[in-house]
Backbone:
């Protein structure tokens, strides 16, 4: 049975330096299925897909669900540098900080991939909240989207929790939605901690990004392609 792709949204329309974020260029979601429906007006599948899951998470798939002609799949796992015992699944504030500390180089890769895309890009992990939320927040921060709009976008996931629970159940062949848990919540303190870290840098998010390996050229490409 086809259902709408859970937690899918276009970040277009937000305020940015010198204008607005162009619609139709950057999307975020939970893990997609080939049979998923999307709202009318969205060109699907996107040109570029960034999959932030680990190889263990996607082992049940024979290939990416949206792989096909004209689609570039980039696997950039954001938690692989952490052992299972290091992942504080019940404390998302600490988890997000660990992602920034241990996977900053991969976060740079995500931003570079978005900047280099020749069309629409989808960023996803399993539920489209944590790794995806950090990645989208990084891109939006670099193009000058105000903090309150970034936080509001992150919190949108809370409206989609049941659909996400059903998607996780479908991934693992369960008949009922997976139970609610702290892992599925969207605590504002978690994304605030990420933004606080970037803003604490002497030159803000752009300074943090270049300090961990990003370039001004990548930031310029992002702004040129994403801001209208």
Residues:
């Amino acid at each position: 049975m086809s259902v709408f792709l859970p937690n899918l949204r276009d970040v277009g329309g937000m305020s940015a330096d010198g204008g607005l974020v162009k619609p139709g260029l950057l999307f975020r979601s939970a893990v997609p299925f080939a049979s998923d429906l999307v709202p009318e007006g969205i060109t699907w599948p996107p040109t570029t897909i960034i999959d932030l899951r680990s190889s263990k998470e996607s082992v049940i798939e024979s290939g990416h669900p949206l792989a096909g002609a004209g689609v570039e799949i980039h696997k950039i796992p954001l938690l692989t540098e952490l052992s299972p015992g290091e992942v504080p699944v019940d404390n998302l504030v600490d988890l997000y900080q660990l992602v920034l500390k241990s996977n900053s180089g991969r976060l740079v890769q995500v931003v570079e991939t978005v900047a280099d895309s020749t069309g629409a890009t989808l960023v996803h992990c399993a539920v489209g909240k944590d790794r995806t939320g950090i990645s989208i927040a990084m891109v939006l921060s670099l193009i000058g989207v105000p903090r309150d709009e970034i936080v509001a976008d992150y919190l949108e996931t809370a409206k989609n929790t049941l659909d996400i629970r059903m998607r996780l159940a479908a991934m693992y062949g369960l008949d009922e939605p997976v139970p609610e848990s702290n892992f599925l919540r969207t605590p504002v303190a978690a994304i605030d901690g990420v933004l606080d870290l970037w803003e604490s840098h002497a030159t803000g998010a752009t300074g943090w990004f270049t300090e961990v390996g990003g370039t001004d050229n990548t930031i310029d490409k992002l702004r040129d392609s994403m801001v209208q």
